[in-house]
TrEMBL record:
InterPro entries: FeS-cluster_ATPase_SufC (IPR010230), P-loop_NTPase (IPR027417)
UniProt GO molecular function: ATP binding
Name of the protein in its database record: ABC transporter I family member 6, chloroplastic
Keywords, comma-separated and alphabetical: ATP-binding, Nucleotide-binding
Length: 115
């Protein structure tokens, strides 16, 4: 192994998909009870998204939880959430099942907003 690797940052030189896969690997190794995945779908093509979703689904057990933050419904096609919370201006404005994400995607924030 080259000596430069000692000073290299984690994930440096990786593609977006490689970074996400490595983050999921780190999560698996750590065995966390709670994982916060902030835009885990960002910058992924559909194949990489499927791979990442499959890995996340493989880590889910009755003894752990995952909080996923996303702006897009496509992630929820692969990882089925128990609950969905919609935030607007820093506040949760709606909680429900997948149907509220589908309404949001189709009709926008006005359809689910309390304001």
């Amino acid at each position: 192994m080259k000596i430069d690797f000692l000073n290299r940052n984690v994930n440096e030189g990786f593609s977006g998909g490689e970074r996400k896969r490595n983050e999921i690997l780190q999560l698996a190794v750590l065995g966390a009870e709670l994982a916060i995945l902030d835009e885990i779908d960002s910058g992924l093509d559909v194949d990489a998204l499927r791979d990442v979703a499959k890995a996340v689904n493989g880590l889910l057990t009755p003894n752990n939880s995952v909080l996923m933050i996303t702006h897009y419904l496509r992630l929820l096609e692969f990882i089925k959430p128990t609950y969905i919370h919609i935030m607007e201006n820093g506040r949760i404005v709606k909680t429900g099942d997948i149907s509220i994400a589908e309404i949001l995607e189709r009709e926008g924030y006005k359809a689910i907003s309390n304001t």
